[in-house]
Amino acid sequence: MSRTEERIETGTGSRPTMTVVPVRHWGQWITAAALVVVLAGFASTLVTNENYRWDVVGQYLFSSRILTGLWHTIELTAISMIAGIILGVLVAIMRESTNPVFSKIAWLYIWFFRGTPLFVQLLFWGYIAALYPNISLGIPFTDAEFWSVEMRDLMTPWLAAILGLSLNEGAYMAEIVRGGLSSIDQGQREAGQAIGMSRARILRRIILPQAMRVILPPTGNNVISMLKTTSVVSVVAFPELLYSAQLIYAVNYLTIPLLIVASIWYLLVTTTLTIGQHSLEKHFGQGHTTSARSSGGVLRNVMRLQRRGTPPEADIATEKAHG
Amino acid sequence: MNNTLPMVRLESVHKSFGSLEVLKGIDLVMEREKVTCLIGPSGSGKSTLLRCINHIERINSGRIFVDNDLVGYTERGGKFYEMKERDTIRQRQQIGMVFQGFNLFPHMTVEQNIMEGPVGILKVPLAEARADAHRLLTRVGLAEKATAYPNQLSGGQKQRVAIARALAMKPKVMLFDEPTSALDPELVGEVLEVMRDLAASGMTMIVVTHEIAFARDVGDHVVFMDDGRIVEQGAPSEVLSRPSHARTQAFLRGVLLESAPTAAVTEMS
Ligand SMILES: Nc1ncnc2c1ncn2[C@@H]1O[C@H](COP(=O)(O)OP(=O)(O)O)[C@@H](O)[C@H]1O
Ligand SMILES: [Mg+2]
């Protein structure tokens, strides 16, 4: 039986079978064919065009300087993201606080760090020694001083990069977390209160786990975006992945192959992160099977495509088994 | 020792939201092991009254006692000091509450919903809490739903789980805020049945409801509220059958008219 002419049994067999001919989308097929031809042409240039210098790509892909850069990129992403998330949760809670000082400070923080370019913020941290040559611990407005350090020694490129990225990320995370917290029905808080839970416990056990469902997808996107944003820290001369590649081609002029090397690594890590994001979202979707499934990312759709042919009940059964 | 004293006592309780006065001086006594039904038109302050009893809302003046314990404040030298959260929490644990919208925790299974309080707050050992949860689930007729998530339950089942969750804290008194108002008519019965059993077991209950039949059959005392005040109260046979105030009469006529079609359907099936 061909794919286009499926025979469909109607009724109990007493009626004659029908031959159904689906609408044929000729225009779509022609466009698709044209695209495939263009892509194939481009793919062949990847092989035939010698300017790509795949030999150089292979030579540098696992070179120690590139791998160190890659490690720095992952380290920066992880630390800044974790710090950003912690900051974001704190600032979001401050923002919702009934204490006006807390909520104003939170507002000011978000206003400043979202309102100025990360590039500029990084430069500030990099050049902060010009603003504050020394920092010291003492009693304000007096000469008493217990501890003091020169800013030049303190503010390494690494610290400037971490501070810049974390504080910037914190401002964005605060808004994401706030959106998540406010998406939870007030009745949830009251139900917690009614059984005698403390406010902190309600937040930790009831509100945050549910807010996670709303918070996670944009956070996942932010992690992936952070991975690439770390390349901006070259302005404070910190050798992450891209800057390491730049340092190499500044000497040997093999610009394109080294950019390809960097891109391959970025793609590899983002792909890994996307897979991790998917399984986290699934975990926090518990008890929300239907909505969790409809709000899936690209990867989830891919996986659903692969499972085509299995009836929808099987789909639900697997999710229940995880529950 | 205080077994002759009322379970809940309100003394000239006032409550305002901004300039809107919602409770305008409530004096009320609710006896132990009795079912007090609170009826009245929407917006008359019934929910607010319940929420003041477990201090989810703060009152502006007056006093509320639960089991002879002043709710939310300590009185010293003629002044009222607001309690620390720790003490408020301890009081709330003695007061169960069931909401119109169930408010189950959707990210937890039925069993986890019920065990959250005992395990997380009372530090009951896990095995004991689970056995307790299953006993309660059997009691509300949902033994087989222990590992289901709330979104896999019907409204009536959700409300029965919510009752089990409140009972798991072994409260002295249970507050019900229109527990059947969000349910499809055919699911109301199963929830009322559970509440009936609970009343028969001697639980002190305060029930805000529009189910006049329930108030008549199960209630020991009926309180009619309107516009932040208690208009009339007494035995169900008095208040529901021979209301003395025009406002009570008008309200009951309205409620009976509204529920008449439902009653007809129930009779037919
Ligand atoms: N949190 C709140 N803020 C402001 N007004 C409120 C709040 N809760 C209740 N009210 C108002 O108080 C009045 C009584 O409400 P409620 O106690 O819910 O009445 P009932 O339960 O009898 O319908 C209503 O006018 C309502 O709008
Ligand atoms: Mg109400």
TrEMBL record, chain A:
GO molecular function: transmembrane transporter activity
Family matches, as SUPFAM superfamilies: MetI-like
Residue ranges crossing the lipid bilayer per the database entry: 29-49, 69-94, 106-128, 247-269
Keyword Endoplasmic reticulum: no
Record-level GO BP terms: amino acid transport
Source organism, top-level taxon: Bacteria
Domain ABC transmembrane type-1, chain residue ranges per copy: 70-277
PROSITE patterns assigned: ABC_TM1
GO CC entries: ATP-binding cassette (ABC) transporter complex
InterPro entries to which the protein is assigned, alphabetical: AA_ABC_transptr_permease_3TM, ArtM/GltK/GlnP/TcyL/YhdX-like, MetI-like, MetI-like_sf
Name of protein: Polar amino acid transport system permease protein
Species name: Glaciihabitans tibetensis
Membrane topology: Multi-pass membrane protein
Compartment(s) where it occurs, according to its Swiss-Prot or TrEMBL record: Cell membrane
Keyword Ribosomal protein: no
Matches recorded under Pfam families: BPD_transp_1
The family this protein is said to belong to: Belongs to the binding-protein-dependent transport system permease family.
Gene3D superfamilies: MetI-like
Alphabetically ordered keywords of this record: Amino-acid transport, Cell membrane, Membrane, Transmembrane, Transmembrane helix, Transport
UniProtKB/TrEMBL annotation, chain B:
Membrane disposition: Peripheral membrane protein
Enzyme Commission number(s) from the entry: 7.4.2.1
CDD domains named among the record's database cross-references: ABC_HisP_GlnQ (cd03262)
InterPro entries in UniProt: AAA+_ATPase (IPR003593), ABC_ATPase_HisP-typ (IPR030679), ABC_transporter-like_ATP-bd (IPR003439), ABC_transporter-like_CS (IPR017871), MetN_ABC_transporter-like (IPR050086), P-loop_NTPase (IPR027417)
Domain ABC transporter: 8-252
Family affiliation: Belongs to the ABC transporter superfamily.
Subcellular localization: Cell membrane
Coiled-coil stretches noted in the UniProt entry, renumbered to this chain: none
Keyword flag Signal: no
Database matches in Pfam families: ABC_tran
Catalytic activity: a polar amino acid(out) + ATP + H2O = a polar amino acid(in) + ADP + phosphate + H(+)
GO cellular component, one term: plasma membrane
Protein name per Swiss-Prot or TrEMBL: ABC-type polar-amino-acid transporter
GO molecular function, one term: ATP hydrolysis activity
